[in-house]
Design a protein that fits this description.
This protein has 193 residues and is α/β, with parallel strands linked by helices. The protein is 31% helix and 17% strand. It has a five-stranded mixed sheet. Strands 4-5 form a two-stranded antiparallel ribbon. It binds zinc ion. Zinc ion binds next to loops.
């Protein structure tokens, strides 16, 4: 078995051994809120936001962007599972700031292997073939961090399937301090109506 797979299963056995009362948790989040954030490995929402099992929904993707699929999850979070407040949390030093759609499309067109980030940007180091399919994906990259939080809160706020009474708060998580810093303009756009 792969080393990682072995480590994961060993950790899981220890976790399950002390699972206790958590097996009786209800499906709806007990604290009735949801967080949309980035998949970055340095972010641990359960820790930085003080979550226990059963507390809240955490929806993650590259960048923590308000993609159609993120909105799908948020709508289910409210409509079927009763969350009442939402956070959009992007973060400093996000990988999504390091490339553009065109860069990603060019990289994928030449090779599917892992690329390498140097002083002058991303370069393919692996062999081809690549694929032109990257042209058909909106990679939702980030040019300006505060603006991306504002844009995503605005998109969720103005979405026809999102009711006006849910407040949506905009934050940037600082990977150097662990601190959440508010993007006031985003929270203002996201206030409940
Ligand atoms: Zn990120």
């Amino acid at each position: 078995m792969s080393k990682i797979r072995d480590e994961v299963l060993t950790a899981n056995a220890a976790y399950a051994a002390s699972f206790g009362e958590r097996g009786k948790l209800a499906m709806p989040p007990a604290r009735r809120f949801a967080i949309l954030t980035c998949m970055d490995a340095r972010l641990q929402p359960a820790k930085f936001a003080g979550l226990a099992e059963g507390d809240a929904h955490v929806i993650r993707n590259a960048g923590g962007r308000a993609s159609d699929d993120a909105i799908r999850s948020l709508v289910i979070s409210y409509k079927l599972l009763g969350t009442r407040e939402w956070f959009v949390i992007h973060h400093t030093n996000c990988g999504m700031e390091t490339f553009t759609d065109q860069v990603m499309r060019d990289l994928l067109r030449s090779s599917l292997k892992t690329a390498s980030l140097g002083g002058d940007g991303w370069k393919d180091v692996g062999p081809g073939p690549g694929s032109p399919e990257g042209e058909f994906v909106d990679w939702l990259t980030i040019r300006d961090l505060e603006q991306s939080v504002v844009d995503d809160v605005r998109r969720i706020r103005s979405h026809p399937l999102v009711p006006q009474e849910i407040p949506i708060y905009g934050y940037i998580y600082d990977v150097t301090s662990g601190r959440l810093n508010e993007v006031a303009a985003a929270t203002e756009i996201g206030r409940a109506r």
